[in-house]
Amino acid sequence: MPAEPSSPQEPTAPADVPSATGAGPSLAHAVSWWAVRLAAPGAVPWALWGLVPPLAAIAAGAALCFLCLVFLAPGDLPWRPLRPSGAAIVLWDLLLVTVLVAALFLIVPGHALLAPILLTALLVLIRLKHWIRLTGEPHHRAATGRRLRWLATGVAALLLLGLAFPLHPEPIRAAVDCVLPSTAPWSGSRWADAAPPAADTDPEHLVGPARWAVPEGERVVAGHRDTVVLSGGEGFVVRAADDGRALWHVGTGRLRSVRGASLPGPEYEPGRLHQVGDTVIAEYRVPGDGDGDGGRPQAHGLAVGYEAATGRLRWCGRGLWNLVSDPHETARFAARDSRDGHHWGLYDAADGGLVARVAAHSWDSSAGVADPDQDRMLLGDGRATVWSGHGYSSYAVDSGERLAAVAAPVDLDRTLSGLLHVEDVTVLAFGPSSADGTGDRQRHERYLLAAHGADGAPLWDSEGTGPLAEGEPVVGSTFDQCRGQDEDFGVVSHRGFDGHFVALDGARAEHRAVVVRAEDGTVASVFDSDLFMAGCSVRRYELDGRLHLGSGAVLDTGGVVRRPENPLYAELVTFTGNGVAVRTGSASTFHALP
């Protein structure tokens, strides 16, 4: 009998080549890839915690677990619930690695990231051969298989290149740092709405009625139009100016929950808050990876701009620190940039864009070069002035155009110790000359004031001898003894009013003070300076030609208009662009400007 025709043989695949029913990767390869499958669902909720609602973070991890079970390759488990194509398995594996790497960048600090990244790279190399086999299954057309092989190889190469980013992670770190301080209504404890003011908190010397009050622990730091910014140890909150409703907040607990209290990330520093127009700007500190001077950890600044009404993130400026603003300025602020030698720049508050780079040493500093960290910035009256002990440079706030550059005269043998703007006049304060000693000079005669026009042209100085008297040119005197702690947070301690400024006859609080006309240096009035010095540590504010002090005192060109009951331990008054906050006892009451 003729032999029965044999049935065609099914092609067999080598043991390590996956097919619909064939063997998969070796047991070692399968077990190693389960490390990625388990790490990704655990890392993603950790990275998302605080950025999204908790249930969403947990759901993301659960979804990854489910998809890992769906896209199993032959041999990954003895039994597979579904049998997806090899191409689908490869694409899912690549996506899973990408998600894991992104999560690691969020949760692992600095160079410590290298260890898990290198381990992931090793697992990718082990899996790469299996990906090529998966895209070579018999039922694939040859052209499709080649394309998938190239795709798998190319994406794997890009991932391996990305794994080297911990060696220079600046772009990714910048993106991460700018995400963390964003607002989220579900994070942290909710700030309570403000309470109505007490019946007896409407003093006559304040210019507007009391609107609302908050307990001790919240400090009014800025405001404009319809919103007020308050700082506290747990973050900051923006309230409605009319009734104190809490509109939005950023909590320190949120930052800790995302990165962990000991991991590098944005750290909130109470008090470093500004409101410029309808933008709230918060300054954060971000620790670096290396060591700075004296073995201290390096750090850089991070300035974040929020929409005042909603808390929406408008812009993020990595490297910006030491911000300076002014309650009367509604479009610009100044800041140092740690990426550019810590030089000053003028920035637009609406988008954080650089208006002009300010050269810290544009004058001819023949007396020596000051440490750039000792340069100060004064913003106000349409000008931005950078100054140190050796001179100053002024710039137009709107355009950044340089208006003046003046070096302190070497022959004065004095150091520039204070500077203020009074409309178009720049007033300078110099310390005592090293040759003065005590001698026969009166206390006020050992100091020196000088005034320049907006272009830097000299107007007058107070060199000479004689008493301080009304109607006479000012002699000696100073105002630099009252810098105030808030100046460290970019708040101007000195302020002119109605074309005048206040000078002191010495460095001690019980001495006299004089109101001086800025354009010609004439003394307008003389009064006891304990009242003035009591308000040194807080802001001053000019309103309707009067100077309001943080002690509660009010001055005009004729002298004292209102004296606080206890000038040395008076209520703490803070002025914003839209109101006045008075702190008495354990509460702070906000008074809106008319």
TrEMBL record:
Segments for region (Disordered): 1-21
Residue spans crossing the bilayer: 46-73, 85-106, 112-128, 148-167
Domain of life of the source: Bacteria
Protein keywords: Membrane, Transmembrane, Transmembrane helix
The keyword Membrane appears for this protein: yes
Bias (Polar residues): 1-10
Name recorded for this polypeptide: Uncharacterized protein
Organism: Nocardiopsis flavescens
